[in-house]
Amino acid sequence: MIIVLQDGSEIPVFKQIRNQIVMGISDGRLAPGEKLPTVRGLAEEIGINSMTVNKAYQLLKQEGYIVTDRRNGVRVREEIEQTSGLTAEAEQELARLVSEAKIRGMSRNDFVALVDAYFEKGRQGK
Amino acid sequence: MSISITGLILCIGTYPCILLMYVLLKNEAQSGKGIYYGVTIPKEYRKAPELQTVTEEYNRQMKRILWGMLILPLPSLFLPWESIVVAVWMIWIAISIFIFFVPFGMANAKLKEVKQEKKWDVEAVTDTEVEIKEAGMIRRVKWCHFLPPCVISVILALWVAVGDFGPRREPLFIMELTFAGISFLFWAVAVWQDRGKTQIISYDSDVNVNYNRAKKNLFKKLWVSCVWINVAYMIWMLFCVDEWGGFTKMFWWATVAYAVGTLIPVIWMGKKMVALDKHYEASRNKVTSVDNDENWIWGMMYYNPKDRRAMVNKRVGVGTTINMATKAGKATVLFLVLTLLSFPIISIWIIMLEFTPIQLMTDGNQIVANHLREECAISMPAIEEVELLSELPKMSRNSGTAMENLRKGSWSVREEGNCTVFLDPRNELFLRIETPSRRYYLSGVSDAETQEVYDAVVSWQKNVEKK
Fold it and tell me: I need a surface site. Which of A28, B11, B13, B437 has the fewest CB within 10 A?
């Protein structure tokens, strides 16, 4: 899977890595149980400090998207907890997106259609 | 009018490089990836008349430069002064190194201008794209590939250092140690290259992984071949020094074989890389982030402060190039600039070497030979034997200077071993001096000066005997 990190973005790199991996899991580019690169390997590949990748992995682990163990390394969790809801932080993010869409004059239907499209994309995989 | 042998050797050695540079730059000017003179051109504009005009102008300039550079140094072949011939060629090499890049840079600037004016936009990639599949895991170089040849290299150098090699030890040890260092250098470069970022050529991760694995495998094989050729050369070198410490003719054959031998895997790898790229041509549906034109100065030099990698894949052609925004890149540029600046300085030094005569004189109880800032002083009481020779024995240089009118430094003399030499070989009289620690071959600016010093030493010895 190819991840894209925006050089000039205000979003911290560790957060960008986390977001890209979550999107990869969602749209099927990363399968359940699939092995992820080691902290050192990914840091070398991106050309950043290992601590940054470590921070991203810690966050993903805390959120329940990945599991780490000494024998198997880092893997996508086989069964991600189905809470049928968003985290408080994600809900806040969604609220921000809805507000932005409203300010820009996007209709409710268009917004829902866009959300549907992203949902479909995730279901089919890329 | 005779032709300078030094000039002829330089001519034979450098002309192929110039031709090679011309061919490479002509090839790199236009690539199948849609990059023209370092500028990405969208498919629909690749036949535009503006692009044809730039190409015609580029070809014209390249031809003019090639012919100019081929003809320019030829008159120097007929100059009688060796140092001036060398100086002309050194400056010519320094100019050749960058002059071929000028038309490329000009074409790049012109095309960027046209592209902006005509709005031939392509999606600029400013993000960093990373293939996370097998990230940091595609490694082909293992210690077991390089450790055996490197250990053999060290053993050879150590064997020469401690073994019973007599006068052969000094020149052999210097050579063996240098080439043992080169073995480790090959290893280091192989590791550095192996750790390079995965090149993204496709949206399919498996394609990216397989392509990069195959590519790194080729590079590994190249460096492993080079290190073993290096070891073979080190072994061969043991038989290339005669019992007096001089290099035999076999040494030159070994050196030619070494140069040709290392060229073979390079050519092999180039061919394999072309075949590999061809094999993956159909799967190539993605350009990498380093393909952003703005990151390439004059379309050739990679400068991207946002990219922390010191080495990136070249956009066109085989191999890697340095990111000049990194510390390693800046150090490389500084080194290159200093090297180029050193060429005229070295040229002046060589001219001074040829045109400054050796001075031989007695100073109190010492014989002093002087040339530029180098001095060789022999205390008269230490002299065991002094001879006036009318013919020089056969000798070969270990270190120092060898010119038509100057021999200076440590030389290996047949049947005598290492000697200190300070003379003008065009003279007819030479001094051979023996001290308990070393032998010397000296001469003054003229035979009269040599005779004068010889007389002074003999009379000093007679005076001592009388007392």
Answer: B437
